[in-house]
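Exam revision sheet. Question 4 asks you to relate a sequence to its structure. Input first:
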Amino acid sequence: MKIVLSTLAILSGLSMTPLSANEDLRDSETKILVTKAELQGMVENMHEEFMAKKEKQLKEEQLARRKEMLSRFSLRRGGDFR
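Answer key, structure tokens:
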């Protein structure tokens, strides 16, 4: 399923007039009307989701680096080889 938003419609949608997008469903076509406020809300939600995923990824990378550094430090000092 593809949703195609016309760039011109987005750029000209600075007023509260509805924007239209075409949703291509194989042989049928469905019109979707989106107001500027709704579009802005969708974009903000997508941004928040993206930033949350990015923050989670960064925390996981930091944790992996910490574990690696602790492992190296432990091995250099003779470490615990249980």
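Marking note for examiners. The longest helix spans residues 36-76.
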